[in-house]
Amino acid sequence: MFKKPAHETISQRMKLIFSDQDERIIEHSPAPVEQILFEVGINPLEVIVSRNGNLISEDTVVGSEDAIRIIRIAHGG
Amino acid sequence: MYQRQSGHHLCETHFIEDIQRRVANTIKTRRMIVPEDRVAVALSGGKDSTALLLLLWQLLPTGQDIRLIAITIDEGISGYRDDTIRSAEQLTSRLGIEHHCISFTDLFGDTLDTFLKGRETQACSICGILRKKALVIAAQRAGATKLATGHNLDDEAQSVLMNVFRGDLPRLCRNSGVDSSGKFIPRIKPLSLISEKEIAVYLMLQNEWNELPECPYTRYALRREIRALLSGFEYKHPGTMLHLIESKKKIERYCAGSVLPASLGSCTMCGDPCSGDLCQVCLLRQTFGH
Ligand SMILES: [Zn+2]
Questions:
Q1: What CATH number is attached to the domain comprising A24?
Q2: Position with higher pLDDT, A10 vs A55
Q3: Quick one: which H or E segment has residue A25?
Q4: Nearest CA to CA, how far is B139 from chain A (Å)?
Q5: ipTM of the modeled complex
Q6: Residues A62, A30: contact at Cβ < 8 Å?
Q7: Considering its fold, how many domains does chain A have in total?
């Protein structure tokens, strides 16, 4: 489903920050945001994602030492 | 660069311009706003209404005598509404927009929290009926000619599916266009073709994203389940939400005049237009013993 980057075998640490200040460190090779979300069971349509404070799209490849903030879009208008 | 459902990549500037263009197009093709209109925006302070007010403020041409005002309803939901009202007040004072606030206590004698004691599972339908009435009263008091709400594509698609699941044919057939019967202040939904995610990204890019609490009653809501289900389908099958909305429009056309009563009567207690003897608000008032 996803194209695998050449350096796929190198496992790296990535920090996932969820809205409720709950942070998780995962071991993961560089991959598109969409794939990371898929693996932690999150529908990309229900969140917005930023890296080091900048909004990134679902096909952005994230890698080692990246701090990825996953912000849930709350219902309500 | 951002990715939309279309698969396009847009830079920040073009993403914002694309949203503005599509909203302007919705307003224009459906004749939602015309010169001399006084548009009341239902501003809860949450993301959708914040985006709506900001977009209308950016888009409405000056010089055509179109006035924007904001109205906020304080339902009386503790631990939730205070934050969003503060956010609404800050936004309107920053944009210099006239702002009216009205509470359930003023209008109906008590807070939503009190009305819902023991009826929590009906929270959204009870709140929806009262809030609709409160918005109409607030809009009338403010002299509005249009009432704009922040309903987005996701909300609209969820409503179609909910009415199907409930077997609510009248609601499924109800005309969703701008009402021109003169009986109601016409309600308009300029964001009805913009997805929830696009709204979130737009606000983020405008530095207007606030992390606000979610309404405590949503855990009782059928809509919450429908929302998760539908966004799962939309992700796997892009276009699902638009297809639902297109189906509703088709059903509306086929059912015109055959499911809904041709003319509305008036509520015997308050005189508001309704289909039975009593309007939904007066029915609720009876239930609450007010
Ligand atoms: Zn009534």
A1: 3.10.20.30
A2: A55
A3: strand A23-28
A4: 18
A5: 0.84
A6: yes
A7: 1
